[in-house]
Design brief:
The protein has five helices and seven strands. With 164 residues, the chain is of the alpha/beta class. The protein has one domain (2-24, 31-163).
């Protein structure tokens, strides 16, 4: 089950319609709209994973939807990032599949680039720095733009907050 940013339940099949409504309203600004997907996870007794679909209109806000899953605890940082990236890529694929079958979404689908945000950064102290080339290559090979910290706000801010 997915939720809106206001914590209301929404069926996954309804998300493209909600994105389209936002996209149509955003046309008045003549600004770029982007679809961004990101995932983050936190360990407790298990690993809580939160995946987010976000649409932004540059300079004019955005909307987002999220889902939470609990899986057996992943303690290895590389495996966690691979799981997060895999979840984001699968979600992007599922969203595209919904948009491609309905011609109502064609303009939005062709006008809004889809990117994947990864909760990894180049910090000297960070454990994720060495994993970035692999993750970026994987995402790019799947046809998406990849973004890491500090610019990967969907994964490192929205999904991060919801996963805590």
């Amino acid at each position: 089950m997915f939720y809106t940013g206001a914590n209301k339940m929404i069926e996954f099949q309804e998300i493209p319609k909600a994105l389209l409504t936002f996209f149509e309203k955003s046309k008045q600004y003549d600004a770029q709209c982007d679809i961004i997907i990101g995932t983050d996870s936190q360990n407790r007794r298990d690993t809580k994973i939160v995946s987010v679909i976000c649409m932004t209109c540059q300079g004019h806000g955005g909307i987002f939807f999220y889902k939470m899953n609990h899986i057996p605890k992943i303690t290895n940082v590389k495996q966690k990032l691979q799981q997060e990236t895999s979840d984001s890529l699968l979600l992007a694929s599922d969203l595209i599949n919904l948009m491609e079958v309905n011609e109502d979404y064609e303009e939005m689908y062709t006008s809004c680039p889809i990117s994947i945000h990864v909760d990894a950064g180049n910090s000297r102290k960070g454990k994720t720095k060495l994993l970035i080339p692999e993750l970026m290559g994987w995402i790019n090979a799947c046809g998406y733009e990849a973004c890491t910290k500090p610019a990967s706000f969907v994964a490192s801010t929205i999904a991060d907050k919801l996963s805590k």
